[in-house]
Amino acid sequence: MPASRRDFMKGLRSGPSPQSFLSPTSSLSGAAIAARGLEDYMAQAQQRGQKTPSLVPPGVTEIRISSNENPLGPGKVALDAILSQFPEAGRYPFNSTPGETNLVAALAAKFDTKPDNVVLGAGSQEILKNAVRAFTSPTRALLTASPTFENCTNVAKQLGHAVVEVKVDSSFKLDTDAMIAASKGAGLVFFNNPNNPTATVHGAKTVADFVERVRRISPDTVILIDEAYHDYVIDPAYQSAIPLALRAPNVFVSRTFSKAHGMAGLRVGYAIGQAETVKPLAQLKMPYNVSVFGIAAAMASLGDPKHIEDERARNTDVRTFTMKALDEMGCKPTDSQTNFLFVEVHRTAKDFREACAKSGVTVGRDFPPFEKTYARISLGTMAEMQKATDVFRSVLRAAPSPTVAGKQR
Ligand SMILES: Cc1ncc(COP(=O)(O)O)c(C=O)c1O
Questions:
Q1: Does ligand 1 have an atom closer than 6 angstroms to the CB of 291?
Q2: pTM listed for this prediction
Q3: Number of Cβ atoms within 10 Å of the Cβ of 45
Q4: CA 331, 334, 336, 342 torsion-angle sign
Q5: Whose CA is nearest to atom 7 of ligand 1?
């Protein structure tokens, strides 16, 4: 049954509003959420079995630009694949058509390699989590950046494993020299390229040099290059590290269908590298971790590269518009190569987030050590960003709270 993308999304959006999940007996205040960060708060509230409230006042329409999601969701070909997959919903993913071996084979074919080089994840977070479990310990540290995507850091800390964090450099890029200097004896290096939340990217030569130097200093250290935002990069110096990972031992790349492919809710990610390198991830993976819908949608999306090109172009237009608007407000974003911006807002991220939420615009959580002056803003549709930039303009016109003094770097 073919579906128009717009109708399908509209149907989904006619469900209950976020406000309808608010419980009058909830003891969870907006300030508490803002202090801790929305996604972390949501995850913890869910673990406690609580409903998840919103910062947006009742009756105000939300523009949700807080979690680096694709505002349009999956492309039409992928949506049709999801809809036509309902008859297979009763099957396990090893028994369905297409099944998980088909998706692994399609990914292996795309990167001109073998199925043993690919491990599927329930989102790339399963890959990241299992990499920390497999390759770090109390004595073999996770070496990571600050700020970066914190999933690996949080898992390592929960497990009591050692963590070494290296602050990004003055251009908000991963500080490769400092990370190399800290790499000796590390169990795992997490190298997020482009980096969330700073939105910056390193070119292919820098990444290749980084890998070579870490491997020379610390040959047993495993290097994880997270390319979640690969499809949004337009910097010509950038190239995927997948060919490098397939050549070099102890290096692998993680990718996700959550961003440009628009499938964050479907939970499909993967690791790719030499078979020996990714084998521990295969051993730790939950059986049948990707659903029959995720498999069908991911395969359809892989078969529709034009959609991803169009999505990159759409995002680039929105990014250019939003960066220019913020620049004109005196708020400089870093050099974004992603579907989000890291912006100097001259006030705390918390103040900015709470003020924007009052007008229905929800932006990202705190990202220490820059939470006193920088905020992360994900990119929605052009129409959403036109409205959101109006809200930013009025929020930024107000004087910042006196707690913020000067620049933070
Ligand atoms: C850099 C990075 N890696 C991985 C992920 C996890 O994505 P998922 O588990 O949806 O694949 C995210 C999510 O925002 C991310 O920003």
A1: no
A2: 0.88
A3: 16
A4: negative
A5: 124
